[in-house]
Amino acid sequence: MPYTTEEDGRLNNFAKEPKMYGAEPPNKNQQRNYIILGIAAALLVAGLVFVAASV
Question: Does the global pTM surpass 0.70?
Fold first, then answer.
């Protein structure tokens, strides 16, 4: 575990930092899946609102 020693002899422990990497944009297949899931979520919410209003 990485640590540093201060002037008074106290130890400071630091968390291990994860390896950083850049995010990649979604490909065409992932974009299509996001659109389908978004439409399904909108239909679900609209259906729930309709059922709640009709009750």
Answer: no
Round to whole Å and give the CA distance between 42 and 39. Answer: 5
Strand partners of residue 12: 4
Residue 5 pairs in a beta bridge with: 11
Q: Are 2 and 12 in contact (CB under 8 A)?
A: no
Residue segments in the chain with a per-residue pLDDT below the cut of 50: none
CA 40 to chain centroid: 20
- DSSP E strand boundaries for 1-55: 3-5, 11-13
List phi, psi (to 5°) of 42. Answer: -65, -40
